[in-house]
Amino acid sequence: MASDIEIAKQFTARPIDEIADTLGIDPEHRMHYGRDICKIHLDALKPDGKPAKQGKLILVSATTPTASGEGKTTTTIGLGQAFTQHKESVCLALREPSLGPCLGMKGGATGGGYSQIMPADRINLHFTGDFHAITSANNLLSASIDNHIYHNNELRIDPRQVKWRRVMDMNDRTLRHIVMGLGGKTQGIPREGGFDITAASEVMAMLCLAENAEDLQQRLDNTLIAFSYDGEPIYARQLNITGAMMALLRDALHPNLVQCFEGTPAFVHGGPFANIAHGCNSIIATRMAMRYADWTITEAGFGFDLGAEKFFDIKCRLGGLDPDAVVLVTTARALKMHGGKAKNELLFEDLPALKMGLVNLDKHIENVARFNKHPIVAINRFATDTDDEIALIKERCAQHNISCAETTHHADGGKGAMELAQLVMNCVDKSSAFEPLYELEHSVTDKIRRVCQEMYGADDIAFTKAAEKDLRLVEKLGMDRLPICLAKAPSSLSDDPALHGRPRDFEVTIRNIHINSGAGFLVVLTGDIMRMPGLPKVPAAERMYINNKGEIEGLE
Asked: Within this chain, do residues 412 and 270 fall inside the same structural domain, yes or no?
């Protein structure tokens, strides 16, 4: 089969105005970025005198990620194209890729095969500049903090207690911990600091959770950035800089409209990490898709235990959303890895390993039920999968009384997910309202314990001394009623990335708790989770170049 980039070259784009026309978006709300991309102005969400459409919302999640790749984004795109094949009104709502991982180990994040969003090269690299705007707004605040300290420091900010970090959209491990302000009196006040990747920025999370521009402004104002020498909290509004941050974010707030390989509309907007942040596209883009299509298909980052838990407990809670169906993606290859096979051993049938790995699927099916939902399993079939392997997965789904469909959307586009689309359409009328995993009134400790026990299967939790100190600060500031955003290893249900399958008899160690008061949640760090990734020994960037036609090669 041809590579993703070779397939992308076969794509003939429809003018983006035609895509917008299929959704019924007024031309005056379109902000064009060339022929293939446009932003849709927030005014498109305002009442227009007509009955407001409220389309059905479909969430796509997955079993625990492995190095073999489960194809969650590809499945989301293929499912959307299948709805189009069924002559249904459908629109996707997806995250924007982060530049660092695209050039690092992960590669592109626009789907694969004949289930891609287009133009893949522009979306994967600079797109419409949203990540650059978020980076600039974040670093304007960083510069303002250090400038305030340098010029008399009227707020008496303690340089040792500056909580706001700089960001850049690149994997660069050397910037995780740095010393700034060296070089003499005119170079600033020396202090420790560091960089996170832009996708981990609180500004990114704020933009993705904001209802509108006014809400985003308020979130920026309420962002905790430091403490004074007296231990008093300092907020961004006290630096009189959030108006300029809004000016930088003005265009980034409008969602981006593109199309899938088969012409299905897709909003691609926002890209928060599924660990440090909530791992979902913007509320604004999701609502825009639901406003203009009968069906909206979205996804949550990593496995259900990480991204989908945050989708329900953070995004749905804050945005008033409730998915009408949940699709759980899995593969025979991934389940064999959870059964103990190495990545280089996955090309051959191994029913005993697959059977052992099915416990991971069991746990995720149980997790979906914790939110009062009944999932549909999508078995993303690869060419090396055998009929007996697929049959074994289907048998396990039947034991759970769960519908499942084998999909081949990577090779066949929308036609390869037609059965899955039909199952989704058949189930939505049976959907029940979701139930959050915890109530906001619960203590922070109880919220953390509930997520760790219910989602991960932990026996209990343990706090480090640093986490206990953080918890006391949260309670002192009256922020203990915020939802929690647990950051842990995506490759395991536990906080140990080496434990595959369905780990049992373990505790989750809580290392730190960070306050994201602007985003409106507490980031709970476990294990060795980092906010700035590093490049691998041979990064994907080494395979990229421009050919003699001016096209980008090697971006997979």
From this structure: yes
Any domain includes 386? yes
Whether 408 and 491 share a structural domain: no
What CATH number is associated with residue 476? 3.10.410.10
Name the nearest CA neighbour of 472 among 444, 449, 450: 444
The range of the structural domain enclosing residue 472 comes to: 445-526
Q: What is the sign, positive or negative, of the torsion defined by CA atoms of 356, 362, 364, 370? A: negative
Cβ count near 543 (within 10 Å): 12
Residue 98 is assigned to a structural domain of this protein: yes
Q: What is the pLDDT of residue 47?
A: 84
**Overall pTM surpassing 0.85 (yes/no):** yes
CB-based contacts of 460, cutoff 8 Å, min separation 6 = 449, 452, 453, 507, 508
Query: Cα dist. 28→16, 255, 449, 471 in Å?
Result: 14, 15, 49, 49
| Rounded alpha-carbon distances, angstroms, from residue 380 to 270, 330, 391, 498 | 26, 6, 13, 24
- Let me know if 362 is exposed, middle or buried by CB neighbors in 10 A (0-12, 13-18, 19+): middle
pLDDT at position 238 is 98
Number of structural domains the chain divides into: 3
CA atoms within 13 A on the CB side of 461: 26
Residue 259 lies in a domain: yes
Residue type, 500: H
Identify the CATH number of the domain in which residue 182 sits. Answer: 3.30.1510.10
Whether 534 maps to a domain, the answer reads no
Q: Which residue ranges of the chain lie beneath pLDDT 50?
A: none
The last residue of one of the domains, among 249, 274, 293, is: 249
- Residue 529: predicted pLDDT: 85
Same domain, 410 and 468: no
Q: Which residues contact 325 (CB under 8 A, 6 or more apart)?
A: 56, 58, 59, 373, 376, 424, 427, 428, 431
C-beta separation of 409 from 423 below 8 A: no
The reported pLDDT for the residue numbered 530 is: 85
Find all residues with CB under 8 Å of 34, minimum gap 6, and list them: none
Residue with tokens 């008899």: 505
The residue count for the chain: 556
Listing DSSP states for 42-92 in one string gives GGGGS--SSPPP--EEEEEEESS--TT---HHHHHHHHHHHHHHTT--EEE
d(CA 408, CA 420): 10
8 Å CB contact between 97 and 113? no
- Per-residue three-class SS string for 468-491: HHHHHHHHHCCCCCCCEEEECCCC
Which residue, 187, 197, 229, is CA-closest to 131?
197
Residues 257, 245 share a domain: no
> Do 373 and 289 have their domain in common?
yes
